[in-house]
From TrEMBL:
Pfam families: NFACT_N (PF05833)
Name of the protein in question: Uncharacterized protein
Amino acid sequence: GSLSGVDDEADIDAALTRRDLWGSLSGVSPINAAVDAHYTAMVAGEKFAQLRQVLLTKVKARRGKLATKVRNFEERMAMSDESELPRQQADLIMANVHLYEERAKELVVEDWYNPGSTLAIPIDPFKGPVDTAQALYKKSQKLKRSAAAIVPLKEEAQAELDYLLQIEVSVEQAESCAGVMDLRMMEDVRDELIAAGYMRKSAALLLLE
């Protein structure tokens, strides 16, 4: 039969789902089934590519910020490793208080930690050697506490960084979409990132559903 009276593409598609190309009883012809499958795969491929790009952009941006945070933590930990120096200076001052000359701005002592050498330790002339040593002990303890506080923060940031790197690698390796299942996999990654708080379910992402 003819398709007269059908004016637009949507109506043509509807008509072709009701009869095959040979005018037989209603149903979907093998040709139409192939067209539908091709269209479905094409749409899935487009959504896959768009979603893959969104995920990579989000993950890389977050990973970059975390990498900076981890480096900052490592730098602060390296500084806190110097906590031994003020403690050593304090020990040397207390062991050589008898050598201090009143109002002197430094105390020259034999350096136990570098045998055969001497060390000139700055002294606050208004505080004297004992109070200067106490201030150095406090500085050493503060640096140690700072290091202790930074360690778990650095470990947490590093674990998050490692997790995002795994996500990034898996998404990058999925370079093409072989079908709807590949799109579902990419959507699962998106949903995981949304649930973990790395992404918001924005209007742009809703369009990809």
